[in-house]
Every structure is written in C-alpha cells, then in structure tokens.
Amino acid sequence: MRKAVRFRVLYLLFAVATYVLGFTLLPETISSSFDQILSAGFLIAYFVILPAVFWFCVIKIGEQKKWKIIIPFSIASVVARYSMPASLANYFEFLSLVRYPIIAILLIIEFVVIYHVVSMLWKSRKLKGDPRINALIDNIDADDKKREITLIMASEPASWYYAIPKFTRNHTATLANLSLLSAKRWHFALVLLGLVAITWVSYSLLILWSEIAAIIVASVIFYGIISVTASHRISRRFSVYCHNKHLIVNATFFNLLFIPLSHLQTCEAGEWECDKEQLKIGRGMANIKLTFSTPVYWFTLMGTFCERPTEVYLCVDTPHELVNSLNTGYLTTGGLSAGTTNDNIDKSACA
User: Fold this and answer.
1) How many Å apart are CA 119 and CA 45, to the nearest integer?
2) At which of 97, 129, 155 does a domain end?
3) Which of 45, 90, 177, 263 is the most exposed place for a label (fewest CB within 10 A)?
C-alpha cells in the first residue's frame, strides 16, 4: 500500500473511531464537570484535531487540493448536531433550518442526474468506450473541481453502460486484461451477497429510529449493485484498451488511469518487484512498466482523488501482446505509426 493511500485509510479509521466514540460516550445533557470536560474534548476532536489530521494525511501527504478541508468541518457539524448534549447541539440547529432547502436542491439534482443518465445511456448505444473517457477528454485541461465533478457525473451513466451487456456491444476491443480479484465470478457473488446482507442489516437497525431514513439508506446501499456489476464486467472484459488516442486502464469501476498516448514514453514487458511507494495496478508480480514523459491522471474512488504518476506498473494476462500493440501498432513515442496496424485494436479508437 502506497504512502498516500495508507495515510488516507489511517485518517478514515481515526475519524470513524472518533465519531463512534462521540455517539457512544457523550451524554444527552451536561450535568457534571466531567460532562463539560468530555464535551469540550470531543468538540476539540471534531473541529480541531480531525481537520488537522485530514490536512496532514489527505491534503499534504496525499497531495490533494486545499479546498477539500471543508469536508471534515462539514461532517463534524452534522455529527455534533446529533451527538452533542442538547445545550451544545442547539448551536448546530442551523442544520435543521436548512434541511428543507437542501432536500429541495437534492431533489432537483436527482432529476437532473436522472435526465443526464437517460440521455447518456441513449447516446451510449453507439459509443465505443467508457462515457467517462469522452467527458475527461473534453475537460482534462479544466480546473480540478470542474474535472472532478465532470468525472463523478459521468460515472453514473458509465455504471449502467458497463452493467448492461447490450450497451457494451460496440465497446473498443481490449488490448489486455488486468489480474484483478474483482474479475472472479466467486468474488462477484460474494460481494453481491454481502451487499444484500448490509442492506438488510441497515434497514433493520434504522427502522427502529426512522422509517424514511431506513428506506433511503437501504435503497442507496442496494443501488450499489449497479456499480458492483459494472466493476465486475470492467475487470473481466474491459480493463485495458485504447480509445481516441488515449490508453485507458480500468482498475475496477472505481479507479481509472487516463493516459494520453502523447505522454506515453515507453512500454516494457518483464518482471518487477514493486515497493510500497510505486503505483502497481493488478494482483501478482508486475509484468508491464509504463513510463510517461508528462504526468498522467490516476483517478481513485470515481474521481474523488486524483494523482499524477510518471511511472506505473501493471499485471496483465498478455504483457508481450500489449507491448507489441502499443509500440508497433499505434505508438511511436506518443504518436501514431503510419502504415502499421494490429487487428486486435479497434482502428477507429486510436485514430
């Protein structure tokens, strides 16, 4: 596990532990000096310690944008509203005052997303690749926030595009397949069973508190079946391919390596033992090494995080065929080679 990912996981575990302890230990009312000290301690943890840890682990170590510091403050405000004693929770009552406008905005966004998904799926009938790729090509030079929002919005129709086999019948032919656990049938079945179990457990627990909340949370979790199905089909069939002068590496549905062919300096086959700080995609020993003249884009968690690696290692099923396809079929130091083609590649994709 690379350093940036390791620190993100550490922050996530620390934040979850802090919030769980807050809901568990904080009293409903302040009736003693100990309650005051405990409440003050958790306020400091929510609004000082956690943002500081987020800054160090995610923004500094993970090299993310500074504006993302609003994330821990926003979550802390919501948690404080429902975990703090009543006298302190009242200071966060503004969250209740704006809930109806927020609900209205969310409904509008939901209708926009539905329209966006339907229109994109209709266009996907003739697409030869991931809908996210076309969105990235059009917005790759935009600012980080616009690019991130674009990728997240495109991920919704992309999940349906990959989950439904009929939509991918015109997909660009793959160059190789990554060695991924999510490509296994048994793994897919276990994840589906786990998702159903989590849906049932969450509904059973929340129904005692709020029927509406139980339905919403359970529905959102169960809706994840679309993304899980898309992730399995991507891992099994569409993990490495070339599209519109870009090499695409899909490490499941949630992680995407976006490589303009003009940035690809070398592609080598061999065997490499990667250390924890090197970006390796796939399970097992790396057998492909990609070196870039300019940093490329490595999107994780559906575009939530973006890194700019200059070197990537892959573990694929046909390393030599991939190297030959790139080096002799279409790529000559980033350009298209004239007169040489490879029948395993969709000619129109890289043209």
Assistant:
1) 45
2) 97
3) 90
